[in-house]
Amino acid sequence: MSKTVFLFCLAVSIFCASQRIPAAAEPLRVRMENFIVTPSTGPLVNVHVQNRSDRAVNAVLRVRWPEGWKGAPGEQTVSVGPNAMAKAAFTVEKAIDLAVNRYAVVVEARAGDVTVTRTQHVICATAPYLKPQVDGKLDDWKDAVPITFATASKATTVMTCWNRKQFCVAVRAEQLKGGAVQFSLAPEAGEKPGRYEFVVVAPEQDGPAKCFLLMRPGDDLKLAAQSRALEGLECGDVQAATARDGGAMCFEIAVPVKLVPELQPTPGRPFRFSLLVHEAGGLRDLGAVMNLWDDQRHPQSWSRWKGAAFGPTPPFDSNIEFGFSSSIH
Known about the structure:
5% of the residues lie in helices and 42% in strands. By secondary structure, it is mainly beta. The chain folds into 2 domains: 3-122, Immunoglobulin-like (Sandwich), CATH 2.60.40; 126-324, Sandwich (Immunoglobulin-like). The longest helix is centred in the N-terminal third of the chain and has 16 residues, at 3-18. The protein starts with a helix and ends in a 5-residue tail after the last strand. 38% of the residues are buried.
């Protein structure tokens, strides 16, 4: 071990000891959920706190909002059992929507003489009411709320929307040739267990994109670990189209609401959604921009299929909080 590395490790150990934080893991950690409606509409948003110690604690939670915003209450105290999780709801009373869709907040949890602070860029993860034409061209998605993230300097933008007949997904992936989009849909956590999982594969040549249904609620979760052939899983009820936009590949997908009846889309109703883009070099994971904890990865959260390369590290859980909204206006 070099002298520099030794001094760095010593400094970390001294800091952790001064905070009474084990070097392996902080005893507390916090995360604010996504906004499931636009911030200017005054949403409730949950802050999660996890106690990773072997004794119960009373944790005081505080939020520092972006400049010019107002939220309530100023702080909340929650009781968290040993190795358990709790959450508290805060209200956004005054806010401004940003086109970039990233909102800097600072979340703090204090228990005794241990204080943990986390700076997040919270995303608005909402599906507004729209009726796009499914043709692979995304010019009719201007009233959606885009979520953009980068993977190896390659930008990917994901949008969702709904109407009385369809739940729709749009993806614009820069520097992508062909590839596939895999996404997961489920009702609010704690309702009917299970998920719907689809994959749309771009055509190798001119022709229609094909959608395959990999999983639905009630299926044996052991299916997720099996690398299944897509033949026989095609879902003709789902509309899918792809188109080139400069150096980007665009996917547009419409799932009939009757195919996913548990979602029951109505303004303000929460649901769960996540998405992967498959390409020759690996995965682009929407979960990477959702401020999830790194251990929120489980191999059975996503279905394997022949032709997809997941790699040694599982993607983030396919269980990210989203919500339906009436409009961004």
